[in-house]
C-alpha cells in the first residue's frame, strides 16, 4: 500500500512532466521525378535536402508551440533559375491553440483531478490499513495484558495455597488439622501450578502475536505490559456516532476519492472524443541565396516575413476508443 501511495503521488508530476520542452530535429533528402506540364521550363527532376532544429513545448491546456531554425538546399534542371542550387533559411515560430474543446471543458483539469483523487484514495487505503493494524495491535496488547494479570492472580493464589498448606501441616502436629484438608490443599496446589503453566504458555503466545504485529523479533528483557489509563467518558447519540464513523472511516474516504477519480477520468475521455477546432498560426523570417553562409547572413540582415493563420477541424468518426473507455469507467 505504501508503494501504491508513492505511485499515485507520481501521477500528477508525470502529467506535468509532459509539458517539459523538447529539442526536435529533422534531416531529410528527396528526389522528385514527377511529371510537370512544361518539363522543358520547370525541369524534369529536382533534388531537395533539408534540416531543422528547434524547441517544442506542449501545455496541459493543449497549446502547442515551436521555435525552429531550418535550412533547405534545392537543385533543379529548370530552364529559368537565377542560381542553382539555391539555399533557403527560415527562422519560424508556430502556435496551435485548441478553441472549441476548451469551451466544452478542459481535459487537463479532469486529468489532474483524477490524479489528485487517486492520491487521496491511496492515502485513505494506506490509512485504513494502518487503522486495521493499530486495531489488531491494540487487541493483541489487551489480550497479553489480560493474560499477564491473570498469571499474577494465579501466582498470588498459589502463594496463598502454599501458606495454607504450611499452616495445616503445623496444626497436624497438634492434632487439630484433618488429613483430608491437607490432601485437598495439596491437590489444589498441583492444579493451580498446572493452570499457571498453561497461563504462562498463553502469555508467551500472546506476546509473540503482539511482537509479530509490531515487527519485533525479541522483546527487551523484563518487558511488562502496563494498563492503559481510562479516557474521560464522552456521550454520543446514534446519529453522531454514525456521522463520525462515515466522516472518519478511511475506507469510506477511499471510496469517495475513487469515485471522484472515475468521474474525472470519464469526463476527460468524453471531452477527448468531442470535435476539436484549433487555431493555428506561424510567423517566420525567410531568406534565399546561392550559398548557405550567404543565405544565413541575408536571414539575419534582411529576413523577409512569412506568416500564416488558420483553423484546423478534427471530428472523431467511429469513436470506438471513447466508447470503450466510457464503458470501462462506468463499470
Give an overview in words.
With 331 residues, this protein is an alpha+beta fold. 55% of the residues lie in helices and 23% in strands. The chain is built from ten helices and six strands; from the N terminus they run ααβαβββαααααβαβα. It has helices spanning 2-9, 11-17, 39-42, 100-104, 107-173, 179-214, 238-248, 250-272, 292-302, 320-330; strands at 22-32, 46-58, 64-76, 86-98, 276-289, 304-314. Strands 1-2-3-4-5-6 form a six-stranded antiparallel beta sheet. A hairpin with a 5-residue loop joins strand 2 and strand 3. Helix 1 (2-9) packs antiparallel against helix 5 (107-173), helix 5 runs antiparallel to helix 8 (250-272) and helix 8 packs antiparallel against helix 10. The model is unreliable at 230-238 (pLDDT under 50).
Question: Any key phrases for this structure?
Answer:
6 strands; rod-shaped; 331 residues; alpha+beta
At a glance:
The radius of gyration is 42 Å and the shape is rod-shaped. It has helices at residues 2-9, 11-17, 39-42, 100-104, 107-173, 179-214, 238-248, 250-272, 292-302, 320-330; strands at residues 22-32, 46-58, 64-76, 86-98, 276-289, 304-314. Helix 1 packs antiparallel against helix 5 (107-173) and helix 8 (250-272) runs antiparallel to helix 10 (320-330).
